Amino acid sequence: MTKEERIKYLKRLAKSKEGEALKGYFKELIERLVDARSFNNENFELEGKASLKAVAILEKVLRDLELLARDKSSKPKNQYI
Fold it and tell me: Which domain covers residue 64, as residue numbers?
């Protein structure tokens, strides 16, 4: 699959109800990963760092999906260009 095809399919997903469900699922996962009570006491620091890294990646995916869901035509025009 080419990059253009992948972007086209991701745009379609981001605008669908399935995309909204996926975003909600990612938000639930982020909440669980941020909850420090689930970390093991022995490896608390290591698990915390791994969890924060996973949260950063999931937040990037969410941000990308939200950007793909926007229509480019609905952007406000820059008055200085």
Answer: 3-69
List the helix and strand counts (H, then E) for the chain: 3, 0
Low-confidence ranges of the chain (pLDDT < 70): 73-77, 81
- Please report, to the nearest 10 degrees, the dihedral formed by the alpha carbons of residues 17, 19, 21, 22 taken in order: 170
58 occurs within a structural domain: yes
**Which residue type sits at 52?**
L
Domain count, the chain: 1
10, 68 contact by CB (below 8 A): yes
Let me know if residue 81 belongs to a domain: no
pTM of the predicted protein model: 0.72
